[in-house]
Amino acid sequence: MTKGRDTKPHIGIFGRRNNGKSSLINVLTGQEIAIVSDIAGTTTDPVKKSIEIAGIGPVVVIDTAGIDDSGEIGLKRVGKTREILKIIDLAILVIVNNEFEEPEKQLIRDFHALDLPWFIIHNKSDVAKITPELVKLAHDVYAVPVINFSALVPDNIEEVIALIRKTIPETAFRKQTLVGDLISYGDLVLLITPIDIEAPEGRMILPQVQVIRDVLDHDGIAVVCKEREVDAFLKKMNPKPVLVITDSQVFPKADASVPKEIPLTSFSIVLARQKGDFINYIKGTPHLSMLRDGDRLLILESCTHHVSCDDIGRVKIPRWLTNYSGKRLEFDVVAGLNKISRPITEYAMVIQCGGCMITRKQIISRLKPAVDAGIPVTNYGMAIAYVHGIYNRAIAPFTKNTIEKVDYL
């Protein structure tokens, strides 16, 4: 399964083998997506399906292998199941026959460690109904709802859907505006978009498209030009833009061209505020001035792509950071949501891309080990702005002087 390539909310279905997880996902989707069998362990790898839930919109439902699998291969399946926890917004724990022991309790501990909302479905209620004792345990000890359900006779599937709507965080499906809170009706926003070897053939990159749509959704006017046309265009432009958003790679050029009284930021920073760990980025970015010889930095890309000779994450950022710090630095790059091979404590800093291809939950979960370990984190655009001496200007549209200004060392 390719993880982290869908920005829709993710719902994971968990439980022991043969508890009817696959049957539940088939009922939810109305299709035979997952193979159903009486043989325990039929689901070996996570299975994804996109569906529409009224009141939420499109979501991705993920069927997982049993948490009680055994043997060498079984334990690998369980490991894959636990990895799914890092990319979901809501967990559904499926139990049968009122069985609630260590496998379930361990899974719940994992839910809590990742701040995951969850609830319980007691499946196969046509065979054995849930006991009052288990209902009391769910309510009193864990403070979560529990539903009696039968995937064979899903008369109360609407109750399950309603509970999904109630439990999933609004932040998973109601997206914060990118720039709508910064502009008013009829305001003009200038977007600086280089067309270079990294630009996709015949189209714009996703963050640029998203910002254009957000400007239009908030009754603004989006004007797009390349960096070479900025100077001439600003001289003719009337009225002046209330906001300029640039590709991070041409930040210095944009900073020199755009008058200081006009707010300037980047597409990456706009995304960082909407779906990244913005507060921790603000705290972490100044640590770029504290790097030492031998420090190792981790660069996290949210997607896999063809690597060009001037790749932003693998080439340009390491070059800029090395030149800025004057130190001998080492860099590891991890693409998609692949495992990080080294202990997080071996890194001096973590630099996350804008994350246009993944959800906010996935970014937060991705960065959580570093944040918990006290490792500073930052974002592509914020790091680029910092090393070019324009960090304060780049974050000013979103902080409104509520944070202390940064001194460049």
Task: Please indicate the percent range of residues in DSSP E strands (runs of 2 or more).
Answer: 15-25%
CATH superfamily of the largest domain: P-loop containing nucleotide triphosphate hydrolases
Task: Specify the structural class.
Answer: alpha/beta
Largest sheet: 6 strands, mixed
Helix and strand element order: EHEEHEHEHEHHEHEHEHEHHEHEEHEHH
* Radius of gyration from the alpha-carbon trace, in angstroms: 24 Å
Keywords for this entry:
409 residues, alpha/beta, Rossmann fold, 3 domains, 14 strands
Task: Give a verbal description of the structure.
There is one protein chain. The protein is 36% helix and 17% strand. The chain has 409 residues and is of the alpha/beta class. The protein has three domains: 10-173, P-loop containing nucleotide triphosphate hydrolases (Rossmann fold, 3-Layer(aba) Sandwich); 180-269, Rossmann fold (3-Layer(aba) Sandwich); 280-399, Rossmann fold. It has a six-stranded mixed β-sheet. Strands 8-7-9-10 form a four-stranded parallel β-sheet, with helices on both faces. It starts with 9 loop residues before the first strand and ends in a 10-residue tail after the last helix. Residues 1-5, 33-44 and 401-409 have low confidence and may be disordered.
